[in-house]
Amino acid sequence: MLVTRQPLLRKFWYPVIPLVLLKDGPKAFTLLGRELVLWIDGDGRPVAMDDRCPHRHAKLSKGWLDGGRLLCGYHGWTFDGAGRCTRIPQKDDDDPSGIRVPRYHSASRYGYLWVALEDPLTPIPEIEEDSAPGYRRIYEFYEPWKCSGLRLMENSFDNAHFSFVHRATFGKLDQPAPSKMNLHPFADGFGFTMDTVVPVKNTALSERSLNMPGQAETVRHNTGTWWLPFCRKLRMRYPTGLVHTLITAATPINDYTSQIIQIAYRSDTEAEAKAADIIAFDRAVVTEDREVLESTTFDTPVDLRRKEEMHMASDAPGLLMRRQLLAKMAEFGEEEAHGGVGLSSSPAPDHVGASHPLATAAMCLEMTYSDARPNPV
Ligand code: FES
Ligand SMILES: [Fe+2]
Prior knowledge:
alpha+beta; Rieske Iron-sulfur Protein; eight-stranded antiparallel sheet; 7 helices; 18 strands; about 15% helix; globular; binds FE2/S2 (inorganic) cluster; binds fe (ii) ion
């Protein structure tokens, strides 16, 4: 599936940038190939609009905020949060309000700005832990990966890869048989939940993250949720009662790059496990996933009739994702857009990061951060 050629994908919410990064002015982000400028208007509302000034097409993200409005850095044309031009400094006598920059659905949730390019079919996922007492929110990762969102999503529900990809962190190489899982599709066809129980190693790194010193193994009672197309929740409950929940999104930048966003929620306190130790363990785990996922094909097959991949029983979650995606495409009169066998069998070339023309406007900021719960804006 080539995400930029799949109109259905424009009808979903995606987290695009931490709100803290908008404190010092507008920022650029490319969503599904569309170059956006993101900013906070004078009323504190997040705004996403085309990163193109209607005058001479300069990037508005290179401008700055002026009295709660966005000013183009080329000749100073100024726009409000609705995208309306409110001032042309060179001709103050004319009413510029008929000039508009296209803007998109935008909202603040969980410390992130979320954007939908068209009327969204589903709401922003509800994360109970965010408002439940006793949980802390830990921001973990915000960085571009050279892989498709579907690859990361299926990996998140793949019990068969732990023993191999994660053999150095929690996987048991000598026990490759994957745990059984139960899948429960949503009635509306926009995702599913999955229950599974996974025995894991407890290494020196995870001992600190889980606050389980001197214990060689433990077990995770996992409940996973997949929200179509590229967002998941993994709630892991340990025998100690500890809950470690991960929210992971793979926001599609272009056909071969996704912005990876991960937030953790924990039921313990900083005194019991330091946020830095929790992030360090999760960083080790996602680095292992990244290594293999960036080697996979970005034009990930969705329509099983293409027969481009072989499957096994533990691939059931990934197959359900493909069926649900294909069913929604059909509902909206679409077929899978793909490049054929030639393109899909070639991994993304090494140069497709920040320097590629389609990726230059993306926020290619790589960061690890953690802060307190209050809205950072
Ligand atoms: S290009 Fe933006 S004001 Fe001229
Ligand atoms: Fe993994």
